[in-house]
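#structure-requests
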Amino acid sequence: MLIDLPDIAATERLAEDVALILGRGDLVALSGDLGAGKTSFARALIRAFLDDPDVEVPSPTFTLVQTYEGGRAPIAHFDLYRLSSEDELDEIGLDDALDTGIVLVEWPDRAGARLPAARLDLTFEIAGDGRTVTVGGAGRLVERFHRSRDIRAFLDAAGLIGAERRHLQSDASTRAYERVRSGGGDRVLMDWPPRPQAPDSGDKRTAYRAADVRPFIAVGNALRDAGLSAPAIHAADIGRGFLLMEDLGAEGVVADDAPIAGRYRAAIEVLAAIHARPRATELKLPDGTVHVLQPYRTEALAAELALFTDWYIPHIRQRPATEDERRSFDAAWAPLLARLEQAEKSWVLLDVHSPNLLWLPERSGLQRVGLLDFQDTLIGPAAYDVASLAEDARVTVSPGLEADLLAHYVAVRRRDDPGFDAARFREAYVILAAQRATKVLGVFARLSDRDGRPAYLRHIPRLRDYLARCLADPVLSELAVWYEKHRFP
């Protein structure tokens, strides 16, 4: 692949395209003669990666290596032009840099066979007043580079030629997000490679989760039609999984690691509004096709609970769950899940908690709450999303605030429907809150033990406290016996 770089702006855009795909263990090898543009490219990449146009990025010609902190991972810039021998690579810490972060290497030929084959190779040449770069290499990083270039072409086709791209976030799925800056204002790019078939991931929720961007588009349209704030879609490539969306900003519902009570109450009002009227199960897409919301039935809830026995018990006990633990666990939960069949049904967005809620102070009423991450919406027990918010897995909701949120929900529902059955809601709520805490314990243990993301373990104590809070309710008295007998949570 040969890319023309007629000016410094083109070099900076290519550097952004590479910076967005880099993660720990990635290596980018920069080759070319003196003055071919290797250092200029490295400088632009580091500034884009750190999202800091003013950071000083000197050439490491004499120091051999310069390291930068503050991004998603440390990034080490090596210049091997003055390397005296391959053995010197050990002294300057090349292997350690690859183990802990990202590595850029100028003059990679000086390293001989010491560089891993899985890398991105960029070879620069002078071409008139500009440069060209030949792209090569091997491994997943090269695949990610080509996808990043596809995103650049998608943005160009959407009229955002030369737009600035910056990493926004990644989540526990295959989705990644970036902020796209242009003269017409900021946008958010969702990059979601389609999943052709459910992988054997060990996550029993996969069968109930969206596989591409179509459900996100359909549910987002339905939420906006209901008078709520979900990001508008400005451009889409459904086949490749690219969405260019409205940027709802970055103001959330949490401050200093604590819920902002008024904003949580506003989010509760959004849920009450969703649940106050019947909701469609078939949602139309702009191309005329229909996305059908699947039912959130007992078997789906039970499959999620199995994450506890599959992952949390092995994490805590350092051994697999026994057959007796699995059988008695399923038996303890079965009658409770059966009772949910009679619970009020509505849209279940599934992850209504602080990471997926934005605060839009310039809007009014229910539209002040921005909704994200709703592509997995199902039709199921309405109380589920209330439990997801009132026992937020990512930030501690005190017992007092939880009680206030539940009372506020009931008051809003009764205002719109005096016959609203608060007792039935509260029963469903406590069952679903316990179900969610139990399954998320399994999810976070899996993310740590299988996926190498130990940061999720910091949420475990909060979830155990939530579960203990639920098990103290008389509705769950028999279930509490199982957890007590097996010394959980």
